[in-house]
Here is the input.
Amino acid sequence: MTGGAPIFVASSPEEREKISTYLSRILNAQAHDLENGIYIIVRH
Amino acid sequence: MGARGAYGAVFWGAVITGLVFGTLARLAMLRTDFRQYPSYPHGYASHLALGIVAAFTGAVAIPALVNQEIAATAFLMLVTQQFREVRDLERKTLERMEETELVKRGAGYIEDIAKVFEARNYLTIFAALVASTVTLLAWKAAERSGLVALGPVAGAAAATLVIVYGKRNLDRQPLASLCHIRAGRVHFKDTILYVDDIPMEEIGLVEARQHFEKHGRGVIIEPKDDNARASLANLGQRQAIAHDAAAALGVRKDRDTPEYTPIVRLHLDTGRAGLALLPIEPDMGPLLEAVRAVPVIEGARTRPLATRAGRKAED
Here is the structure.
């Protein structure tokens, strides 16, 4: 899997939520749910 | 008229009246309110000191000219030029402070504050000038009848008129004069945050949505006419609303949680705006008061109704 931004693969929705929370806090960014199973972390 | 070096009672009477009323003019426009501007006590002291210098400049100008002190007048012109820099300095200070604010003021609000600061200093100079000139003229006119006290009294009256008129016209309009402001309901449809029917933003994290459901407060801002709608659409104006609401009530956010920043978004069909925030103070009353008191940014104020096209399009 390749992309223009780093991709983190989570094994469950709970893990996805946890990784998104940590990343958004660390990066001072906002997590958005695309409702297709993917969250994007964006610094606005 | 006075010869060089003849600084009699007239001169000092005029200068002192000018200085006193110039300073009063500045004091009348100087108050630190919940917006924390000017910052207290040093910012306040600094504004007051500059106001006194401005008052002195205005007060001495005409009496110096009358006493044929051309050097003094030239010096005063120089001092007045310095006041042009004042707006720049104020803007730079506020821009540097932006980094330390959890909810930024935005460029529009900063520019407005700097512009107002400059205008208030000029009003101080003008009030002092009017006071000293009228005192001088009235004193000279009353000299023959011996009622020289008329001088300062007339100067005081004239300056008071300037202060009252200036304060009325230079005071910023509150948002309530342009818009109806009422409480709105904060809720989610799937992951999108709404205030009443206005979509605000998408909040991805479950924890963040729960935080909004527990602590979120919403305000609906409805413009009264097309002019108000244009002003409300301005990004600077909306950022000012977010900043002032956060300043008044606090915000449950830190620098690493940008989704908790107060947000103001427009309803694209009607031009209404919704404000969603997570205040530390939960009561709606103070929040509505704070939003009502937000100043209308001069730069945001456009008047489409003053144009023919705008009037034709008016609904």
Chain A touches chain B at residues 17, 20-21, 24-26, 28-33, 35, 39-40, 43-44 (CB under 8 Å).
